[in-house]
Amino acid sequence: MPDQSIPQARTPDAPPAEPVSGASGISRRALLGTAGATGLVLGTAGGAVGYASAPAGATPLTSVGAGRAMFHGKHQPGIIEGLQARGHLVAFDLAAGAGRKEAAALLRRWSTTAERLMAGEAAPHGDTDVARDAGPSSLTVTFGFGYSFFGRTGLEKQRPGALDPLPDFSSDHLDRSRSDGDLWVQIGANDALVAFHALRAIQKDAGSAARVRWQMNGFNRSPGATAHPMTARNLMGQLDGTRNPQPTDTDFDQRIFVPASGEPAWMANGSYAVVRRIRMLLDDWEKLSLTAQEQVIGRRKANGAPLSGGDETTPMDLEKTDAHGDYVVPLTAHARITRPEKNGGAAMLRRPFSYHDGIDADGTPDAGLLFICWQADPLRGFVPVQRKLDRGDALSKYIRHEASGLFAVPGGAAKGEYVGQRLLEG
């Protein structure tokens, strides 16, 4: 889990949210109102992103409810948007006898449902009314394909080389039943009911074509919970995400997305998602003194500043020593080991959720991070950094990787298309 791994939950600058009233026609939920004309709409990144006026006689939605991400576009939603307050990750395996034809029909159904729900509309059939009173709440739904999907659909020749299984790491204690999968869906929203509504709709749409392999639930700080937008904290209490790549970086697309001319062609403008369930050994971590915790991470807990001095955004001075000649940022500090310049320039966009799945019989919390990172090629992004962490990260003593998956996430669907159409009908 790097300074670009654990977590790194800095909220990327979110693209402008589309006001609900921008949808074609007025949706069922839009009739409840949109953001008031005199109020700023706050996006998931916490900044002002637009205005919308309420239809006459309608009660305005709050800024959280009015936020909207777009389904159609160059890239799938749920990658460059800011962190969301609630998330669900779910993997499916195709049913016995289901192949390419059934997969295409399923992705078509899923895409139709995702487009409607992200616009704040009801599911196309069998809507449960769970989200009836809410706006889109920045809902995103993202779809990906696992290694095994291509064998099950006869598309082995279209399987990307970058999707080869991840190597074993020393910190792995993987539960294979909660790892991998033919299909992967990421759901995020700023309202828990909106997120659950989408999860339920996606599950119902699977019908007899696919069954759930595993499912995980996560959360982040809610928009507006802090006095001003700031880097998120993880369950260890650390500011997390300080060095996350930003969409404004000149090399952002090159590092995160497959180029339009890339191979295979169906992955143009897509990305690869590494998903890891990383349990934090919080009882052990919380026994450390503040100073010891900061030495493990390499940053101040209060404000995320590097131990070498400055504030959160000050470049880390890896050569600075103290009066005894020791490095101020220890050689085993997580933030030192994960720096891109120490890993051949390897970079990835971390977009995680924290999780808490209860308390074990011995009182130990089952809590940690649903680590999700995006990159153009995991062999140049996640893998080299994780290998470096394996060889000496002080944080490794306090975490355990319990589940893992790697998924090819194709580019966004154009209007009238469904996600994965170029693969399944190409």
Task: Give an account of the 3D structure.
The chain is α+β, with helices and mostly antiparallel strands and 426 residues long. It has one domain. The chain is built from ten helices and eleven strands. It has helices spanning 63-66, 100-118, 147-152, 192-206, 252-256, 282-285, 290-297, 334-337, 382-390, 421-424; strands at residues 41-42, 48-50, 86-94, 140-145, 183-189, 210-219, 271-280, 349-350, 353-359, 365-375, 399-409. Strands 7, 8, 9, 10 and 11 form a five-stranded antiparallel sheet that branches. β9 (353-359) and β10 (365-375) form a beta hairpin. The longest helix is centred in the first third of the chain and has 19 residues, at 100-118. The chain is globular, with a radius of gyration of 21 Å. Residues 1-23 are annotated as: Disordered. InterPro entries: Dimeric_a/b-barrel, Dyp_perox_C, Dyp_perox_N, Dyp_peroxidase, EfeB/EfeN, TAT_signal. Residues 76-220 form the Dyp-type peroxidase N-terminal domain. This is Deferrochelatase.
Give the topology, please.
Elements (H helix, E strand, L loop, with lengths): L40 E2 L5 E3 L12 H4 L19 E9 L5 H19 L21 E6 L1 H6 L30 E7 L2 H15 L3 E10 L32 H5 L14 E10 L1 H4 L4 H8 L36 H4 L11 E2 L2 E7 L5 E11 L6 H9 L8 E11 L11 H4 L2
Antiparallel strand pairs: 1-2, 3-5, 3-6, 4-5, 7-10, 7-11, 8-10, 9-10
Helix pairs in contact: 2-4
